[in-house]
């Protein structure tokens, strides 16, 4: 049951704690309750942070996230048939809803998805009969009496173990995974195909979408992201490099090559350019928590769509429109191909996405206000408020404004996540993870 | 008396500091000569629009489009040279290139991308993906593009990047699978199959491992006979190769380790 929080009057008043992760962060995801935050990195590692319990004796550390578990999820592999190295970079992490004491998550690289179980151990058994405390086997002839082993407390140990490996189902690079609301199945999507898996079955998957043309010469479009509907377990959406989104209903046919709905905004003729297609390419698609809307991120904007209206989005929020006149340079340095993600807050009243120069943007859908904030250590003292930033697109630069020409395009915020209930956000800036909390709490 | 706006006043914001300012501070420009073209490009901030756009009337589209065209071709080459190309990047660059091509020569009919004569069965049987077919189609697209004026100085799409003197233009992607047959291709060569395999790139077994410019996917056996830089495997040899690999034809030497 989500709690609906009212924003403070000045909106987005955040304090900070941050962590340095060893490698470039490639995905960030809160668990369903928000008490755990998982990050994946380019080195194939997963680092999970846990929120500290509120503690009256240490009021300042209320709600801080500390490292809970670290493990190597994927290793680099070599495909001998094709003489290719498969990167260990974690493309996506998705948590399963919690069902017991242990926590489960799916993590994927380009080719293989793994189900990990994260469990706590805070007791150990002592007094075994057949082995002594070192673990060495006791000589059976020396055992003269039986004893009952007893459980003794120990320092908390968090263990991660791989429970399933879902491999060999993707020819192309996996870009998305999404757990179904039935909690039994999930989808994985690569550039040309989407597969449906059962969490218990690793040796086969069902192909539900295939856009590979019979003749690869005719390839003009790839799948860029896919997600299951949060409540309707038969509904999924996938986005394309041409800026279109297709909604599929698995009840209508086994193979969802024919969409039920097709979302595309007609091109604005006045802003047409050689780069129109590239900037329209959708890099992320996310359903709202309510399931009524979905959000898409293209290069310059975030669009909110009503699932009942395919002709155009109901909202368009400009992320960094000042880059429109710089598209050629951004094409030249390949920044135009950067894939930004986007996310909703718990009540679907706000959305967030990243930009360059370690800036990220938040849009309040109710007040239609937006703000640009920066994730950087120089500007983030712990527990200090973040100062809104402004980019000067041209003309006279005011004090405290950053000019477009001095933006650092190597500092890109591609991955952000919002706590499912509270106003806590996680922002990945290259290999730094920032966690901001609303001080108004 | 109103002041007539001088040329100086119309210097766009973007060109004040120079072409490098759009890039992040740490990145180097790829090619020096592009910098000059880049300067021109940024100075006119509407040149990249389609020729149909009214704003382009001010700009010299032919010159500007040519540099964007060259840039796109370079990106395509670079993408194809990857051992496993990023399909999204590739598709977006190709689509953009087609758009530019169409705007540059609107009257000339776009040469239809011909289906490359596929080596019988090899691509289908040996490759899990159609990466070879994709590369082949890209290669033929590039071949068409090479006929367009101004591209003659661009590198031929399938120029080998391996050790000098070892042309791999004709090496079929299936040769990647041949690596499985034995640790040293030298053994296979000894038995008179030399002529067949002389253009195998054995750089994998040389001192540097995992050479990124593996020949696996960037070349195709389907190049027309007009291509001079690579010795071709003719269809009979390809058939033989195919049979060897599916086991209907025994190798002339007994199986060695690794078979």
UniProtKB/TrEMBL annotation, chain A:
PANTHER family linked to this entry: PROTEIN PHOSPHATASE PP2A REGULATORY SUBUNIT B (PTHR11871)
The name this protein goes by in its record: Serine/threonine-protein phosphatase 2A 55 kDa regulatory subunit B
Domain of life: Eukaryota
GO molecular function: protein phosphatase regulator activity
SUPFAM superfamilies: WD40 repeat-like
This protein's UniProt keywords: Repeat, WD repeat
UniProt entry tagged with the keyword Aminoacyl-tRNA synthetase: no
Annotated family: Belongs to the phosphatase 2A regulatory subunit B family.
GO cellular component: protein phosphatase type 2A complex
Automatic annotation (TrEMBL), chain B:
Residue ranges constituting the SERTA domain according to the UniProt record: 61-108
Residue ranges with Basic and acidic residues bias: 1-12, 215-230
Coiled-coil regions, chain positions: none
Pfam families referenced in this protein's UniProt entry, alphabetically: SERTA
PROSITE patterns linked to this entry: SERTA
One GO location term (cellular component): nucleus
Stretch list, region Disordered: 1-40, 154-177, 213-234
Protein's name in the database: SERTA domain-containing protein 1 isoform X1
Organism: Tursiops truncatus (Atlantic bottle-nosed dolphin)
């Amino acid at each position: 049951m989500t709690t609906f929080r009212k924003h403070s009057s000045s909106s987005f008043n955040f304090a900070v704690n941050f962590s340095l992760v060893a490698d470039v962060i490639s995905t960030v995801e809160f668990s369903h309750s928000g008490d755990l935050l998982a990050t994946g990195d380019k080195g194939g590692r997963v680092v999970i942070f846990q929120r500290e319990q509120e503690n009256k004796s240490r009021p300042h550390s209320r709600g801080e996230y500390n490292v809970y578990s670290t493990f190597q999820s994927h290793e680099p592999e070599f495909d001998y048939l094709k003489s290719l190295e498969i990167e260990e970079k974690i493309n996506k992490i998705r948590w399963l809803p919690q069902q017991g004491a242990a926590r489960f998550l799916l993590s994927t690289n380009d080719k293989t998805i793994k189900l990990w179980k994260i469990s706590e151990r805070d007791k150990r058994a002592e007094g075994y009969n057949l082995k002594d405390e070192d673990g060495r086997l006791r000589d059976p002839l020396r055992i003269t009496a039986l004893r009952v082993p007893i459980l003794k407390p120990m320092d908390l140990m968090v263990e991660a173990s791989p429970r399933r490996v879902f491999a060999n189902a993707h020819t192309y690079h996996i870009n998305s995974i999404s757990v179904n609301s039935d909690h039994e199945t999930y989808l994985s999507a690569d550039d040309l195909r989407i597969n449906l898996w059962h969490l218990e079955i690793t040796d086969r998957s069902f192909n539900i979408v295939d856009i590979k043309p019979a003749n690869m010469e005719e390839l003009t479009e790839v799948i860029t992201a896919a997600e299951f509907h949060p409540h309707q377990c038969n509904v999924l959406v996938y986005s394309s490099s041409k800026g279109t989104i297709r909604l599929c209903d698995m009840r209508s046919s086994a193979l969802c090559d024919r969409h039920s709905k097709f979302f595309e905004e007609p091109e604005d003729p006045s802003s047409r350019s050689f780069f129109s297609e590239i900037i329209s390419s959708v890099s992320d698609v996310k359903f709202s928590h309510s399931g009524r809307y979905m959000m898409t991120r293209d290069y310059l904007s975030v669009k909110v769509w009503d699932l009942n209206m395919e002709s155009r989005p109901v909202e368009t929020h400009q992320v960094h429109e000042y880059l429109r006149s710089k598209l050629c340079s951004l094409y030249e340095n390949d920044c135009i191909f950067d894939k930004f993600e986007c996310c909703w807050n718990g009540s679907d009243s706000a959305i967030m996405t990243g930009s360059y120069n370690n800036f990220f943007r938040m849009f309040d859908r109710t007040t239609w206000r937006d703000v640009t904030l920066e994730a950087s250590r120089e500007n983030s003292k712990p527990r200090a408020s973040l100062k809104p930033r402004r980019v000067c697109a041209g003309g006279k630069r005011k004090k405290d404004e950053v000019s477009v020409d001095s933006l650092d395009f190597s500092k890109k915020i591609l991955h952000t996540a919002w706590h499912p209930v509270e106003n806590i956000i996680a922002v990945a800036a290259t290999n730094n993870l920032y966690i901001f909390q609303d001080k108004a709490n | 008396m109103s002041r007539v706006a001088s040329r100086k006043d119309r210097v766009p914001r973007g060109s004040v500091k120079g072409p490098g300012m759009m890039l992040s501070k740490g990145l180097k420009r790829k090619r020096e000569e592009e910098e000059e073209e880049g300067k021109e490009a940024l100075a006119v901030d509407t040149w990249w629009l389609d020729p149909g756009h009214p704003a382009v009337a001010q700009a010299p589209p032919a010159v500007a489009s040519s540099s964007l065209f060259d840039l796109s071709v370079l990106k395509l080459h670079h993408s194809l040279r990857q051992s496993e190309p990023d399909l999204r990047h590739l598709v977006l660059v190709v689509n953009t290139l087609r758009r530019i091509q169409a705007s540059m020569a609107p009257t000339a009919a776009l040469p239809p991308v011909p289906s490359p004569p596929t080596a019988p069965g090899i691509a289908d049987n040996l490759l899990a993906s159609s990466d070879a077919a994709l590369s082949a189609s890209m290669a033929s697209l590039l071949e068409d593009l090479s006929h367009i004026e101004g591209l003659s100085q661009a590198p031929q799409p399938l120029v080998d990047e391996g050790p000098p003197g070892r042309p791999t233009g004709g090496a079929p992607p299936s040769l990647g699978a041949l690596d499985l047959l034995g640790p040293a291709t030298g053994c296979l060569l000894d038995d008179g199959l030399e002529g067949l395999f002389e253009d195998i790139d054995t750089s994998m077994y040389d001192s540097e491992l995992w050479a990124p410019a593996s020949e696996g996917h960037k070349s195709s056996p389907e190049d027309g006979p007009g291509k001079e830089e690579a010795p071709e495997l003719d269809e009979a040899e390809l058939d033989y190769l195919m049979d060897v690999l599916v086991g209907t034809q025994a190798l002339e030497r007994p199986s060695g380790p690794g078979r």
